[in-house]
Design goal:
Blueprint: E1 5-16, E2 19-29, E3 33-37, H1 44-51, E4 59-64, E5 67-68, E6 79-82, H2 94-104, H3 109-123, H4 138-150, E7 156-160, H5 168-185, E8 188-192, H6 196-202, E9 205-210, E10 213-219, H7 230-249
Parallel strand pairs: 3-8, 3-9, 6-7, 7-8
Antiparallel strand pairs: 1-2, 1-4, 4-5, 9-10
The structure holds adenosine-5'-triphosphate and magnesium ion (MG).
Amino acid sequence: MKKNNMVCVNNFSLALGDFHLNQICLDIEEGEIFAILGPTGAGKTVLLESIAGIYEGEKGVVFLDGKRVCDSAPNKRDLAFVYQDYALFPHMTVMENIKFGLKMKKIDKNKGNERINELITLLKIEHLMNRYPANLSGGEKQRVALARALVLNPKLLLMDEPFSALDPKTKEQMYQLIKKIHEAFGCTIIFITHDFNEAQRLAFRIGILIGGSIRGVCESQALFHGNMEKDVEDFLIRKEINMKMVSNLN
Ligand SMILES: Nc1ncnc2c1ncn2[C@@H]1O[C@H](COP(=O)(O)OP(=O)(O)OP(=O)(O)O)[C@@H](O)[C@H]1O
Ligand SMILES: [Mg+2]
């Protein structure tokens, strides 16, 4: 049975100074994990922020669960955003950081506490609750940022290069955790990465963004197969060679 689209980006165009997102069309199914790949400056973050309704396009529209995302006030949108630098509030403890969104959205205290307890266990952050972000490791900050995002039970989780600052072992643990979170909460996930292996490991499908345009969408196993235009192949082939070189070194 075909699932509903959680995100529908319909012919969306946007200009920011000299940069343009060009007629983006993307349908992302409910429960899907979708990766956005592309060179630096391609517009990946701007696209993710557009999906979150931060920018209203000049043309086209972004639908979230069937409704225009910009029609809802930001605190009513059923999504959460995890930034690359985690964007935790430095003057708040871990517990206060996690509770912040609950207050903003006026979520029932008992329900909120239940959810916090569930997440604390899943993300293994019990021992960090009274600490401040400044003295957490990158992996710990990442888990706290995820707890803060997931406490609102969003239908859509958006993550901008969530694992780029982590060492390989911690990355590996985070992949397992994301899979667990996806199983437990069933939310739709869109994430940006520069890591082809990571995209293939986590995502069902991958979209390639170059120069503000979506240049291809494929099943994640098919990333290095099939014909694509020259600049897309250059982008992928270079990476493939790099990956081979790395595996030869190991
Ligand atoms: N508010 C803005 N005003 C003008 N230009 C902007 C604005 N925000 C982003 N840009 C420009 O848009 C382009 C795309 O930026 P974006 O941050 O989306 O790239 P990216 O693909 O996420 O790159 P990276 O992989 O380095 O994070 C860049 O050239 C950036 O300078
Ligand atoms: Mg970016």
